[in-house]
Amino acid sequence: MTTLAEITAVLEAAYPPALAEDWDAVGLVCGDPAEPVSSVLFAVDAVPETVDEAIETGAQLLVTHHPLLLRGVHGVGADTPKGALLHRLIRNGVGLYTAHTNADSADPGVNDALAEALGLTVTGPLRPKPADPLDKIVAFVPTGAAIRAVHEALSAAGAGEIGDYSHCSFATAGTGQFLPHAGANPAIGEVGRLERVAETRLEMVLPRHRRRAVVEALRASHPYEEPAFDVLELAELPSRRGLGRVGTIAPEPLSTFTSRVAAALPETAWGVRAAGDPDRVVERVAVCGGAGDSALSAAVAAGVDAYVTADLRHHPASEHLLAGGPALVDVAHWASEWPWCAQAAAVIDKELGGSVDTRVSTIRTDPWTLGRNA
């Protein structure tokens, strides 16, 4: 039996809530973490149609990209549109979970799914987020059984984790020296006598937010009354996390690339439109799922030939082209984010070994329902 709590843990490992923008609302909206889940439906939006689909297909969890309750509320009465949806979900035993801007910036995330759909080879994020800051602790421990005890204590406190590995460390042998003075209670040696001891220099990295816990673990596990150690702040490292993605394709004219985008994404009334010379050669591309005009300057700085995003406005687009920026390809907001649903479903399939059925909704929840050409 797989519980809702286990599924949300998998989702939050893939799309860490800490990556969400401070204005965002992500995570579990409704549902009992202890309840079993055997089927999950993925969609971009929680709207009446996708809620109906979740109920009709027997899903116990609806996972969406867009938050149902983005802004603070003081009640969810069933006499309001959003409150009515929540009441329907709860009455039918369906939980609701949202991964929004945390999924946008995750690696992989929304923008990797969009880039993959377009056939791009991703080289990095468009607007990188800095990697989580790291420290290194260097401790000097008497050689022998104390090494294992200190190493285990530091590991348990959060040190030594690198990617999918834990208990990572490096140790070198050396000689420690100290002279205990009156009032000292040395674990090795005597007051007033210079002591030289075979010691091991133990080095481990740690997330900076775990610094206090790791230092306390060192003091508690070290045999010395006054353990010697250093805590070093490591330089900021580049990260593959962040908004948007930059990638490459085989060179082709903008007209052909625009057709590529239209063929890769689900059809919408909004369609796909491009701004720029139809014959311009496109090879280096930036993408940003959802409304991406805030990253126009980043696309210029990245030196791309074309920028694919949604919800572009007339004046920013016009001014961008006037300044000689890359070609623009504007798609429907919903269509740009829909490929993520399959990615998120695959995360559950992989991590839970197929113990939970996953389904991606194909209902078009884009608000635009009609489109006409002159």
UniProtKB/TrEMBL annotation:
Matching Pfam families: DUF34_NIF3
This protein's source sits in the domain of life called: Bacteria
Q: List, alphabetically, the Gene3D superfamilies matched.
A: 3.30.70.120, NIF3 (NGG1p interacting factor 3)-like (3.40.1390.30)
InterPro entries found in the cross-reference section: DUF34/NIF3 (IPR002678), DUF34/NIF3_bac (IPR017221), DUF34/NIF3_sf (IPR036069), N-reg_PII/ATP_PRibTrfase_C (IPR015867)
GO CC terms of this entry: cytoplasm
Q: Which UniProt keywords apply?
A: Metal-binding
Q: Does the keyword Iron-sulfur apply?
A: no
Molecular function (GO) terms for this protein are: metal ion binding
Where is a divalent metal cation annotated to bind? Answer: H65, H66, D104, H333, E337
NCBIfam families membership: YbgI_SA1388 (TIGR00486)
* Subunit: Homohexamer.
Which family would the database say this protein is a member of?
Belongs to the GTP cyclohydrolase I type 2/NIF3 family.
Output this protein's name.
Answer: GTP cyclohydrolase 1 type 2 homolog
